[in-house]
Write a structure and sequence with these properties.
Layout: H1 6-14, E1 18-22, E2 33-35, E3 38-40, E4 43-47, H2 55-63, E5 65-70, E6 73-81, H3 87-100, H4 105-109, H5 115-119, E7 121-126
Antiparallel strand pairs: 1-2, 1-5, 3-4, 4-7, 5-6, 6-7
Length: 128
Amino acid sequence: MDTWTAGELSMIGYAEELDLASRRDDGTLRQPVTIWVVCVDDDLYVRCMNGRSGAWYRGTQTSHQGHISAGGVEVNVTFADADPGDSAVHDRIDEVYRTKYRRYGNNIIGSVVSPAARAATIRLIPER
């Protein structure tokens, strides 16, 4: 399985936002959406605040492939749903979201650490 380099993890993980474009069945990319991203251990994660019914989340489920851009890094990725049963990983992701984006306040951060958002957690895997 492909992994992120230390430099990519640092640049993307430090970036305030990430642009994510999912790939349609015909191979074309959808319009990118701008979302928050967190780095936990050696993985990058994004969450859909609208849960699994969110439009961009549903788009990632079409081919499970797409393209991201953040922190000066552009790479094609595979979208893998985070294991819903791994509460330790989800708790750590929550913690990093709260720390990284704390200036936005609990009401806004609450939308990405809610049960619905946790259920729509995607691990980004680089395609090499």
